[in-house]
Structures are given as C-alpha cells and as structure tokens.
Amino acid sequence: MTAFIHSYTRPQQAAAWLKQYKGKKPLLALVLGFTETGLIPGISAAGATPADRRCTALADAEFLLRGPQVDPRFPLPPLQAGASPTFISRAVVADLGLPVTVFNAGLPQAPSVPCIDLEGLPAQCLSSGRALPPTTVKRLWQLGLAWGEQLAAANEGYLMLGECVVGGTTTALAVLLGLGIAAEGRVNSSHPTCNHAQKRSLVQTGLARAKLAAQEVDPLAWVAAVGDPMQPVIAGMALAASRATGVLLAGGTQMLAVYALTRALADYYQMDWNPQQVVVGTTRWVAEDTTGDTIGLAQATDACLLAAQLDFSASRFSQLRVYEQGFVKEGVGAGGCAIAAHLYGGWDQAQMLQSIEALLAVQMRLEQKSLL
Is 19 exposed, middle or buried (0-12, 13-18, 19+ CB in 10 A)? Predict the structure, then answer.
C-alpha cells in the first residue's frame, strides 16, 4: 500500500494488484445509464431537481471528455452542495492523457460526445419490479462480455470501469438484496447522511412486485426486476476482461453490487474469470462513510476494496471542502481515476488537489463570464 492508496479488505490481493499495475496506463470505459428511480424527490443529491438529474450523466460525460466550455450542450447541473466528481476524473484524464471510451447503456437522450451506443433502455423505477425487459438485460450482458474482451486486448495497462447512473446506489441495494447479500443499511449515497429508509421502502416494494424466488433465479433476472442498464454491461466487461488483464471497478456501492453480480453470473453460467485481477476502487469519503458500511459490504461481497485518500479540507474552494462533510463523495470513476493518477503519474495529494482546483478555477471563470 501507499500513503495515498489504502486497502480496506483483502490486503494481500490489493498489494499484489497495485504492484502489478504500478506505472501502467489504464483505459477508462465510462458506462452511462439511467433509472427513473433517480427522479424521485430526495433520492439523490446528484442534481438539485429531478429535471437536473435527468441530464446529470450527459453533462458529466461531456465535461469528462471536453472539460470547461463556453457553451456546453449539457451544462453541469447545480448540486445541493459541492462540485461534480467529474472534476476529479477530468483533471486526471486530461493531465495524464488517459484514453476514455464512453458507452451509452440506456439514456433518455443521446450524449453530446462520441460514444458506443449499446441500444439499451432507460430503466423504469425499481419500485415497479419491472425495471427493464429481460431480453434487453441479456443483450447488455452479452455486449459487456464482448466489449470487455475487446478492450482488454486493445490495452497494455489495465481496464478501469466507471459509471454514471443517478439513483444507482438504490438499484445497487436492490440487486444486492436480490442476490442474497446483507446490504441493508450499508450502501452510500450522494447525501451527507444516507437516506436508508427511503431506499429500503422503494426496494422492498420493487422486490415484492418482482415475485422472484432467491436461489432459483438467473442473476440477470434481478437486474431486469430492480436494476439499471449499467449493471449488466460492466459485469460482463469485468468478467471477460479479468481473463486477460487487471480490472479496476471505479466506484463505491454501485461497483460492489456489480462485483457481486459478476461473481453470481460466473457461478450461474459456469464461466471462467479471474477475481484476483478485479479490485473495487473508490474514495476515502465512500470507504469511511459512517452513515453506511462500505467495508462491511465489501466483506459481504468478497470484494477487494481500495480507496484514494483524497483530502479537500485545505482547498481554497468551498465546493471541494464540502466533500469533507459527506456531500457527493464519488461518481464518474473519480476514486478510480485518483488511484490511477497515483499509480501511473506518481501524483500525491498535493498534486491531485492542485490539478482539480486549476480545473475548477477555469470552469468558474467561464461561468462568471457567461453571466456578464
């Protein structure tokens, strides 16, 4: 381990993985998805209003690839507090020249940046018990397998898999519970204090309406019932890519759910994969969130959990300092990108903060100009 990257579970696997991929340049695959769960008032802080949250993934992807612009097609939505985690990811991607491939797994409208359209669908609210058509989920899983193999073969480093799905920690909870994992009260959220009761109520309604019996079911059936379109894609990518290279699942609760789904699918379909090559990488704010239990959830899913020890307490920007109060925490592969910046670029905390603040300063100047 290093001072900047801390292992919270499976320390031997973490140490071996970090040693193997130190100095290697990753490829970031960002998978965008949407669930109407994210439109429920109060469910997420990733956009101040439901209308904002409909465009969060589109705006984050545009900023990740293009950075600050005078007239963005999808402006970053106002948050309840803080700055989008895409500032963290963009700073790393831009300054270190990391390759990025964007996938549309199911969005209400097309992204403004070049992407691979997997022709998925936005998910209905998980409380329906019918979030996605089973045929769509199966196809997204198969495309994930194919793309995971292709991306692993095209990359000399490792594969970093990120996501942007507003409301995705709630679909993560639903899929985890469907898979039989004790996840209640353990997931995170973009709120300073996780809204466990709201999540639990929605999930219980969705699982009851799904009428699926545990142990008898294809794991993809849980995604179709109460999941989102990102989950089967990244599960397929991680499984296939692990056979050939390292995989960094860049995220918190949502990636722990994807890891659990990957393991369940490998068992159900009796598919070869290499779990030793797969780690989950997030931020300290997620790993140490006292309003959830990320470490316990990682242990319950048997995942190797790493976190970048980002610290914004000394930032000159209040939008970053509020991360220390529990706002935002993670998203758009932020924690994974920070881990990659340390492994590949040798960045420390000071370099990380300097790069992120420089990017935020440019964005704020452009926003002030547009108001004149």
Answer: exposed
pLDDT in tens, 312-327: 999 999 999 999 998 8
Asked, for residue 371, whether it belongs to a domain, the answer is no
- Look up the domain containing 38 and give its range: 5-366
Contact yes or no for 196/102 (Cβ under 8 A): no
pTM of the entire predicted model: 0.97
Phi and psi for 150 in degrees, rounded to 5?
-65, -45
Contact 141, 224 (CB under 8 A): no
Kindly give the pairing relationship between strand 305-308 and strand 5-7: antiparallel
Nearest to 198 by CA among 207, 208, 185, 209: 185
pLDDT tens, 40-91? Answer: 988 887 777 888 888 999 999 999 999 999 999 999 988 777 899 999 999 9
Classify residue 174: in a domain, yes or no. yes
Per-residue pLDDT, 368: 82
pLDDT tens per residue, range 104-121: 999 999 999 999 999 999
* pLDDT tops 70 at residue 1: no
**Closest-CA residue to 151 (of 183, 120, 116, 188):** 116
Structurally, the chain folds into a number of domains equal to 1
288-297 confidence digits (pLDDT tens): 999 999 999 9
CATH of the domain at 345: 3.40.50.10210
Rounded mean pLDDT, 231-243: 98
